Amino acid sequence: MISRDLLFSAAYELNVRAATAIPSDVKKTITRMAEKEIQPLPRYVLKNMVDNYEIAEAEKRPMCSDTGLPRYYVKYGNEARNEGGFVALEAALRQAAEKATHDIPLRPNRVHPLTRKDYNNNVGAHAPSVDYSFEPEADWIEITSVHKGGLFGSDYRMLFPADGIGGIKRFYLDVIGEFFRRGMSCQPVTIGIGIGGTKDVCVKLGKEAACLRIVGDRHPDPEIAQLEEELIELGNSSGFGSMGLYGSQSVMDVHIEIAYAHTGGMPVAIHHFCLAQRRSTVRIHSNNSLTYREDPHWFTDYYRRETVE
Amino acid sequence: MNEHVLPIPLQDDDIARLQIGDVVFLNGTIYTGREGLYSSLYDKHWKMPIPLAQMSNVTFHCSPAIREHNGQYDITSVTATASFRFARYIGQFIRDFSVKAVIGKSGMALDIYKKAFVPNGAIYLSTIGYGAGAIYGRSIVRVEDVLWKEELGLAQAVWILQVEKFGPLLVESDARGNSLFGQENARINNQFFSLYDGLAAPILRRLGEETDPREEMV
Ligand code: SF4
């Protein structure tokens, strides 16, 4: 039985790690991009981004003052049990967000959408949001915390089978044209694309693809993996560099996830995850020990299954 | 790239020397402002209780990450917010507060520079990288004052900050209204549009949607 207190303290520590430690895959990629960029202005910008990561870590400063919207992804092992059940789990996650906002501190970004009321704790209606998936045979609970910022860089389009891969590429370019200009997406970004399902499902999958797969990860389906690689290349040939300056290094990676769609349609959603990729994962074992790691491993074979079972 | 370290208040002859793409570092006092400040002044018609224009002629579109203890504030990190949203207010604000430089993210539309900036001798300085909050946070040496903290909240309050070697900032619009993003967009466009060759427009269009990728959205 996983204890209530442990869930809270693990979720709290998770927020601290997400907010202050820059995932090594992202840091390595931006450093490499700074070396590859040949245009002087965007190269200068990329180098400063690397410096910024270093200063943030060394001096414990937020890498970006928009500390994003804290949210959680929970993978619940089928054999796992926690004290107090799901209600206690959600309470622990909300309490951890509140305490982390106060202690780290995080910017209290969550407000009522109409009245703009702010409890100054990043908690409110549907906030922090919690998404769930499950894992057979596992007796652990995994929690990933993501603090994604940014108002820009996401879009949805209902495409049709006749739009084809060309339609997806065009949409991909449109979103780049829309949000790489003037660096609105805070590129370099990781781009998540959800294809298929229904509108809500592809938006959700695209967001998870952007936030919950590490840079360099390829989809196990070779055709999808190839499309991911083509789109990375396409994005980096667009002329947009960091900050929307003329250059060639703005896409860190592209991650695609698919869901089976209505036979007549092909809904697509695209999300840009900015250079402040704040995420961290913890596995809470049934013996109440903890393992923290950088890779969320959210897209398991089970989560992507196509079979009846 | 030319580098300049400039004292605030900014002087006209210092500003005149700057060209788009130059790198600037600032010393002195700056103050933050965004929709909270603008709408308090121009929609709700609140009176500015302090002589803001005399304190500084540089304003910053942002909201900082702040640590508060015993009434003392410590700004750990600060990143700019996208300026295009303030287009409605910026002309009058520059005039009313004798602003010489606006610091922000993503710049503003070219005609705003011509209409609101150039006639007042004002320039636009872009923070770099946008996500680079720690770099800017460390060059804030002191919070001098904060205005309308209770009324507007931490994020929207007006923070008056003493900064040292605050930068790097890129000159996005110079005193003549040239724009770095305007120049870069022109360089990008040819290459970018060539990628559209052979890619048909989507079958279903949406009302109110821009379908010409040459159009800027801001
Ligand atoms: S998009 Fe990301 S890097 Fe840019 S301001 Fe927001 S949190 Fe910071």
Q: What does this 3D model show about the protein?
A:
The complex is a heterodimer of chains A (309) and B (218). Chain A is an alpha+beta fold. Chain A has helices at residues 4-20, 24-36, 40-59, 85-103, 164-179, 199-211, 222-236, and strands spanning 69-77, 130-135, 141-148, 154-159, 189-196, 251-259, 266-273, 279-284, 290-293. In chain A, the strands form 2 sheets. Chain A has a 5-stranded mixed sheet with strand order 2-1-3-8-9, covered by helices on one side. The model of chain A has no long low-confidence stretch (mean pLDDT 96). Chain A is built from 7 helices and 9 strands; from the N terminus they run αααβαβββαβααββββ. Chain A folds into 2 domains: 4-21 and 63-148 and 279-293, 60s Ribosomal Protein L30, Chain: A (2-Layer Sandwich); 150-273, 60s Ribosomal Protein L30, Chain: A. Chain A starts with a helix and ends in a 16-residue tail after the last strand. In chain B, helix 4 packs parallel to helix 5 (110-117). Chain B has 218 residues and is α/β, with parallel strands linked by helices. Chain B has one domain: Alpha-Beta Barrel (fumarase), CATH 3.20.130. Chains A and B meet through helix 3, strand 4 and helix 5 of A and strand 4, helix 6, helix 7 and helix 8 of B. Bound molecules: iron/sulfur cluster. Iron/sulfur cluster (SF4) sits between chains A (64, 66, 68, 149-150, 186, 274-276) and B (79, 130-131).
